[in-house]
Write a structure and sequence with these properties.
With 363 residues, this protein is mostly helical. It is 58% helix and 5% strand. The strands form 3 sheets. The protein has a two-stranded antiparallel sheet. The termini are far apart. 34% of the residues are buried.
C-alpha cells in the first residue's frame, strides 16, 4: 500500500522534537551565508549567483541522467539575468528551457504557482514534445497511470505506483491551494513537504523530478526572502542520490509520518549550505586574481581562457585545446600560452605525459 492510497493522505505527521536542532542549524547557516554574501561587492555577488544557478541547473538535470554543457548553461543564465560575462556561447532551446524554468522559480519566488505556470515549466523542459526518443504529453497532466518498476521480466519489483490519472488534477488543486497559502509551518519545512507531496502525485508524463526541485528552490527562496541563490540543493541531492531515492520510496510506502524524510531533507540541506563555502571561496580567488592582474595586458583570447579555467574547465588544458576553443592557429595558441607563462599566470603541470598540460597560478 502506498501513502496516497490512505484517506486524507496529505494530513502528514512528524516528530518536531527530532527536527528542532536540525532546523535551527539550517536556519543559522542560511542567515550566516546571506550575511557573508551581503558583505561582498555587487559584481562578486553576481558571480556567486551565476555560479550557484549554473550548478543547480546542471545537477538537477544530471540527477535525471542528462548531461548539459556547462558553458551553454552559464551563458543562458547570464543573458537572461543581464550579467556581463566573458566567453559567452550560444545555447540551444532545451538548455534555455531548463534555465527559464529555474529562473522563473527563483527570481519570481513571490508569485502564485498555478496549473498554467507549471504547464509553462513543463513545456520549457520539453520544447520538442519528446523526452529522448519518446513522444510525451506536454504542458498538461498525464492521462496514463504510472509505475516505477525494476528487475527482469517475470521478476519485476514495483518501487512505487503514483495516484491514478483521473485524480491527478484534484490532487494538484489541493497541493497548489496548500502551497500558495501562508501557513505556520516553517518555510524550510514547507520546502521539504512540498517536494515530497509533488513527487508523490507525479502529475506529469516526465520531468517531475526537475519540477519538484524547482518548486523546492522556490520555497527555499521564500525562506531566505531573497532571489539570490548561494547554495544548491540539487547538487547535494545528486551527491546523495542513492539515499534520496531510498528515503523517498520508504516514505511513500509509509502511513503519512514523514519524520524520516524531513530529517533527511534537513540534513541534506545543511550539507548543501556548508558546501556552498566552496563557491564563495572560488569567487573570491577569481576576484583576487583579476585584482592582482588588473594592469596586466592580455588579449581577448587569453582573458576568455583564463576565465574558463576559473569557471571549471573540464580536463587538461593543452595548446591544441586552446587553439580549438579560441578558434586560432596552433602557433598563436602556443604564443598566447607562453606569454601567460612569462607573466606568471600559467605554468606547466608537474606531471609529464604525451602532451604538455598547463594550469593556473593562483597563489
Amino acid at each position: 500500500m502506498f501513502v496516497h492510497q490512505s484517506k486524507n493522505w496529505t494530513a502528514f505527521k512528524w516528530d518536531n522534537e527530532r527536527l528542532l536542532t536540525l532546523l535551527a542549524n539550517v536556519r543559522h547557516l542560511q542567515g550566516r551565508l546571506l550575511g557573508q554574501m551581503e558583505n561582498l561587492g555587487f559584481k562578486l555577488r553576481e558571480e556567486a549567483v551565476l555560479s550557484t544557478l549554473t550548478l543547480d541547473v546542471l545537477k538537477s538535470t544530471e540527477i535525471e541522467g542528462e548531461i548539459l554543457n556547462k558553458d551553454q548553461v552559464r551563458s543562458s543564465i547570464a543573458r537572461k539575468l543581464g550579467f556581463e560575462v566573458s566567453g559567452m556561447v550560444d545555447s540551444p532551446r532545451n538548455v534555455d528551457g531548463v534555465v527559464e524554468m529555474m529562473l522563473d522559480a527563483t527570481q519570481n519566488y513571490t508569485l502564485t504557482v498555478t496549473h498554467e505556470r507549471l504547464f509553462g515549466w513543463h513545456a520549457a523542459l520539453f520544447p520538442t514534445g519528446y523526452s529522448g526518443m519518446y513522444k510525451i504529453e506536454v504542458a498538461k497532466y498525464r492521462s496514463g497511470d504510472m509505475q516505477f518498476v525494476s528487475g527482469a521480466m517475470g521478476k519485476e519489483k514495483v518501487h512505487y505506483e503514483a495516484p491514478k490519472a483521473n485524480v491527478v488534477e484534484k490532487e494538484m488543486n489541493h497541493f497548489l491551494e496548500w502551497f500558495n497559502t501562508v501557513s505556520e509551518i516553517d518555510p524550510v519545512l514547507k520546502a521539504a513537504i512540498a517536494h515530497f507531496w509533488f513527487i508523490t502525485i507525479h502529475p506529469f508524463d516526465d520531468g517531475n523530478g526537475r519540477i519538484a526541485r524547482a518548486i523546492t528552490d522556490m520555497q527555499l527562496a521564500r525562506s531566505d526572502k531573497s532571489s539570490q541563490r548561494f547554495y544548491s540543493m540539487s547538487n547535494q541531492i545528486l551527491a546523495e542520490r542513492k539515499q534520496y531515492y531510498e528515503i523517498l520510496e520508504k516514505t511513500q510506502r509509509g502511513d503519512g509520518d514523514i519524520t524520516e524524510w524531513l530529517v533527511w531533507f534537513l540534513s541534506c540541506l545543511e550539507r548543501a549550505l556548508v558546501n556552498s563555502s566552496k563557491i564563495l571561496d572560488a569567487v573570491l580567488v577569481k576576484a583576487g586574481f583579476w585584482e592582482k592582474h588588473s594592469q596586466t595586458q592580455l588579449n581577448e583570447r587569453q582573458r576568455s581562457m583564463v576565465n574558463k579555467l576559473f569557471d571549471g574547465f573540464e580536463g587538461k588544458l593543452t595548446s591544441s585545446k586552446w587553439a580549438k576553443i579560441t578558434k586560432c592557429s596552433q602557433d598563436t595558441a602556443i604564443r598566447d600560452i607562453q606569454d601567460l607563462i612569462n607573466k606568471e599566470i600559467l605554468r606547466k603541470e608537474a606531471q609529464g605525459g604525451r602532451s604538455t598540460n598547463y594550469e593556473l597560478v593562483v597563489n
